[in-house]
Amino acid sequence: MPQHIRLRPSAWGASLAVSGLLLTGCGASADSKAEPVAAASASASASVSASPSPAAPLKPGEVRVAGQVDKPYTLTLTDLRALPQTSVSVEFTSAKGPQKHTYKGVLLHDVLKNAQPRFDASKKNGQLRGVAVATGGGDYRAVFAWAEIDPGFAKSQVLLAVSEDDVPFEDASGPRLVAPQDTKGGRYVSELNQLWVGVVDPVVDGGQH
After folding, report:
1. Of 167, 169, 208, 166, nearest to 189 (Cα)?
2. pLDDT score of 207
3. 109, 67 Cβ separation under 8 angstroms
4. Using an 8 Å Cβ cutoff, are 104 and 162 in contact?
5. Gap between the Cα atoms of 206 and 209, Å rounded
6. Whole-prediction pTM value?
7. Closest alpha carbon to 177 in 129, 121, 112
8. Average pLDDT of 123-127?
């Protein structure tokens, strides 16, 4: 006859206690593994949300005004044509030889002033520490001192031109930066797509150390 094994009450209780410890240990192990994963996921999400959004790609004919300004913005050739126009006649030399043209457009100073550059008002003539950097097609770049474009300090009329000799620029050509005071055309930036405004203090002061 088969024999039936009967656990004594003390043995039965010990068996239940061991089973409970095993189950509890499994649960703790799963939780301890899940917590670092959840923390890492939350950290990654925070990192992604904290990353700055990349600037939207520019379309032909658009110009982004940015830098150390309070109100960065983007404008188009159409926007420029709707603003008060200034006409200048210029002569300069280029790789193609002597050039003589009449350009019509908007004063660069007015376009940059609308972005509200952050010049230090506590410094005497703080705006004279400012620079404007123009970028065009093929990453072509030219720099202007703020005093060159500010009518309060200079008579030059640097333009964002929308036409040359009464022929409007197409969007693919973009506006053209025109520097009437220059005798060479190196700073006549074609296919203009970005204007950056800033001050030289961080570079100059940093270079002293």
Report:
1. 169
2. 74
3. no
4. yes
5. 6
6. 0.72
7. 112
8. 94
